[in-house]
């Protein structure tokens, strides 16, 4: 088995977890299968970089002296908000030589600045998808998945999704057993499918300003199997259904129905990941009523059925 070099590009303002999360996955793979990976870090001049959290990281080498890697990883962070012509030039020259080109979070912005994402379907952190699409119209930006693989180019969303993508790459290289062992060691799931949406209901919605509406948001989260119709929720908020629906959308940025859909999907997803409960039981606990109702919701939102979703986390079941 040929050893694969994995090179992480460092720069001032890099997000430390964008680097260390995927790096720990590849390091775990090297421990599991010695000789599988050679992990390197490099900055433009080989100088130490200061991450967005203030942590100082000393790279192994300068990019100018780095060998062409098998997998080139470009992390994100606050530093990507400022264009870097020198780094863009280096990526433009050396990026196409790597067998795999990977970005974590807003590292996609660095790749786009170098013209390496033109004509490709990509993703990045949900808060920067619109900016990436606006600044680089030749790039097809998909804001929904946690990671996207388009040919030899792979892009991931927010920080932890870089771990998911790294696990997928290790599974491709070394097999599922190796990736599962690493995921268990890191106490993470193996593995969230790339087409899983990068949202949680609480993150996707704004917190309502008025206390009755905040209480309703919390009630929905804690009781996904309850009657969550607009009429029922309006009674809890002590508002008329029409006033409640209008106020809820104004203050949270989404309709009550959309919020309920997201809460129920998230609740069902977690039960599938964390428990051995049956699909029928989970569908009732999550407010879908029937397995078919839950299946339709999963296919619509995630592009996969609940049984397939669970298989990714519990392949023996």
TrEMBL record:
Q: Name one GO molecular function term.
A: sequence-specific DNA binding
The record, for Gene3D superfamilies, names: 3.40.50.880, Homeodomain-like
Q: Which UniProt keywords apply?
A: Transcription, Transcription regulation
The record's SMART domains line, in alphabetical order, gives: HTH_ARAC (SM00342)
* Ranges of residues in domain HTH araC/xylS-type: 214-312
Pfam families (alphabetical): DJ-1_PfpI, HTH_18
Top-level lineage group = Bacteria
Its recorded name reads AraC family transcriptional regulator
